[in-house]
Amino acid sequence: MIELVIDQRRKDLGGFEVGRVLPFAGHRTVGPFIFFDHMGPATMAAGLPRSVDVRPHPHIGLSTVTYLFDGEIMHRDSLASEQAIRPGEVNWMIAGRGITHSERFEKARAQGDTLHGIQAWVALPEALEETDPAFFHHGEMDLPTYEGGGMWARLVAGKAFGVEAKVKTHSPMFYVHWRLDAGAKAELPAEYPERAAYVAQGSVEVDGRTFQTGQMLVFAPGQPVLFTAIEPSIVMLLGGEPIGPRFIEWNFVSSSKERIEQAKADWRAGRMKLPDLDHDEFIPLPGDPPPAANPMS
């Protein structure tokens, strides 16, 4: 039933840590999910320096999916989108042929905050990798919920458990937030060929084994999976249809290595850097020299 267990790897982003789960050397994707970071939980004091913000950077060939349990992040992008995300909401950004965005902790800077959530990337199907970039924000009314037997669930994106979220997706997939009371039982059906569960908080028992915060369980296809919460727990379910091989380098995802090289050249040449989001420095490619200080930042 359990094909693989992936432990998060802690990574310092220059002010707070994330637990990186995907991509993993032995299992790079789960359905279309090609990147999965667990942010926090992190306490951020008022007066947080701007250096902690995620500065403007580019993407191609994917959708970014931001979902929070606690805290607030301000999203800005080169389509002129400006949208705060709060717990229970979804920011879904389609990079397609190219987009630039930043993520800022403005609430934390003003008054302090606690950040806890998941940032995921969903690879676009090969035929749609060069689609037009777009940004969508969805509130709680767009995301179906269910409650019963000590389990509360929200469908964040895709189709699962007989319902569909009002989030534009490009391939068959599911993304679910479970909140389980101690002793609660819940089942993941065998609906999709690729499925995984990430323990974001607490601990659960699956197939006679106990799993803790920071572990992703990747399941073999064909059988439902029963979970029992050992303590109050948060579990994220994810997966879908396989998307085929993808190259991933820095912030770029593509079925073509040549396309990634082109995107790198475009970024270095400044062809993806308009508008100058908040007059900030842009993140250089790994190995590039840092940009000169911007007097307006």
UniProtKB/TrEMBL annotation:
Region described as Disordered: 278-297
Domain named Pirin C-terminal is located at 175-272
Residue ranges, compositional bias (Pro residues):
286-297
* InterPro entries given in the database record: Pirin, Pirin_C_dom, Pirin_N_dom, RmlC-like_jellyroll, RmlC_Cupin_sf
- Recorded superkingdom: Bacteria
Q: Name one Pfam family in it.
A: Pirin
The Pirin N-terminal domain is annotated at 17-122
| CDD domains the record matches | cupin_pirin_C, cupin_pirin_N
Q: Which family does it belong to?
A: Belongs to the pirin family.
Task: Tell me what this protein is called.
Answer: Redox-sensitive bicupin YhaK (Pirin superfamily)
